[in-house]
Every structure is written in structure tokens, then in C-alpha cells.
């Protein structure tokens, strides 16, 4: 039998997740039968909360050099779970897109997801802080104009074009930049596999958001229900599956040594 001792912050985090889950019960009466977008907000908020507990427990079990990246995965799903509660409320009570909450969530979670590329490489070799900073800057160039376009502060096309440049810069770094070179030359097979899965998630999984933006604001507009359900499903891949790819590497690396 494995004996584990939880640290205080880990206990506090678990209590917070449960509190979050139970507080959402009070909002249940607002969910209308047949509101599939509302259901998707509901289901995914719970999946995110459950993932948070999983990643925290695994950060504790696996620990060592992998504790940070697994904890960051938990932070991503925790922040998103919280925002999903609020987004669901906006959706069920107004039937409109919770754009502000979405972007606040992205502004916090996307940089954390980017940091993961740095962290998984740092867990196995020496990497420069430049990788971290370049990915962070790319994230801001992608998200800030996107928000300004969606919220009506700047022209939607200009916001889109600048945002796309930020995303392409991120893709350049992870496909051909320093991060990719470190991954190709110094990473172990397990880390290489998870690096590749993460890289393709950022390419294919992330493309859903600019496509949604394009159809929603530039190509005649789409209905809010479709846009939200598509964004919600994308988040399952880009936040939960992404965390699982990191967990895969952590688990492989540590059990290989045992
Ligand atoms: C967990 C949330 C994630 C991974 C959100 C990712 C969001 C994007 C990749 C957004 C990208 C956009 C562009 C590439 C162009 C401008 C419009 C955006 C902000 C939707």
C-alpha cells in the first residue's frame, strides 16, 4: 500500500475544488432542459474540476522534477473550471457568448500552457529562459488584439490579423525555433513523444479558436450556440488532453527508472 502525505496547500486546493463543485449545484435550477450548450458548460466544468484533482494527486505521487509541470496542468484546469461556472451562468441566463470571461480565462491559462513547453524540457535538460519569454510574448500578441477585436475596441479584421501573427510566431518557435531543437536533440523518447503531441495540439486544436472568430465576426457571423459549443469542445482537448500528454511523459520517465 502506498502511503501519501498531503501538504497543506494540496489539501487546500482539493477543498477549493470541492467547494467549487458544490457551489455550482445552486445554479442547477437555471439550466433549461434541452439547452445543449448549457450542458456542455456544465459537463466540462466538472471534467476540469476532476482533472485538477487528478493532476494535483499525480504531482504529489510522481513529484521530483515533474512536480512543477503537473502542478501547472492542475492550475490550468482549475482556473478554467472556475471560469466555466461563470460562463455557464452567463449563457443560461442571457443566451449570449461569455466573451469577457473567456478571454480572462485565456489570458491566464494560455501563457501557463506555453510555459509547459519550457518546463517539460527543463525537467530533462538545461534550457534557456529565452524559450519561455518568446512563447509568452507570442501569446500576448495573439490574445490582446483578438480580445480588442471581439469586444469592439478595434476593427475585427485588424485584431484577427495581428492575433494570427502571434500564433504563427508561437508555431515557429515550437516547430523550428530553439525549443524544437532542444526537443529533437536532447529529449528522451517519452518527452519527445509528449512534445510532439503538445505541438500538434497547439497547431490543430488551437486552430479552432481563430476559425470560430473568423466565422463569428468576419464571414457573415455564426450563431452564438455553435460558437460556444465548438470553443467548449476545443477546451477539452487543449486543456485536459494537453495536461494528460505531460502526465504521460512524467509517468514514463519516472517509471522507467524504477
Ligand atoms: C484553453 C484555451 C486556449 C488554448 C485558447 C486558445 C486561444 C487561441 C489559440 C486564440 C487564437 C486567436 C487567433 C490566432 C487570432 C485572433 C483571434 C484569437 C484570439 C481567437
How does this structure look, described?
The protein has 258 residues and is mostly helical. The protein has one domain: Up-down Bundle (Rhopdopsin 7-helix transmembrane proteins). It is 82% helix and 0% strand. The protein contains nine helices and no strands. α2 runs antiparallel to α3, α4 runs antiparallel to α5 and α4 runs parallel beside α9. The two termini are 17 Å apart. The mean pLDDT is 90. The structure holds retinal.
Would you summarize the structure shown here?
The chain is built from nine helices and no strands. The protein is an all-alpha fold and 258 residues long.
Helix content: over 70%
CATH topology: Rhopdopsin 7-helix transmembrane proteins
* The CATH homology group name: Rhodopsin 7-helix transmembrane proteins
What best-fitting shape do the alpha-carbon axes yield? globular
- Gyration radius (Cα, Å) is 19 Å
Which stretches are poorly predicted, pLDDT < 50 over at least 5 residues?
A: none
Strand content: under 5%
Query: Residue-averaged pLDDT, rounded?
Result: 90
CATH architect. name: Up-down Bundle
Distance between the termini: 17 Å
Structural class: mainly alpha
Q: Can you list the ligands bound to this structure?
A: retinal
Text of the CATH class: Mainly Alpha
Order of helices and strands: HHHHHHHHH
Oligomer type: single chain
**Whole-number tally of structural domains:** 1
Main beta sheet strand tally, sense and closure? none
Question: How many helices?
Answer: 9
Q: State the total count of DSSP E strands.
A: 0
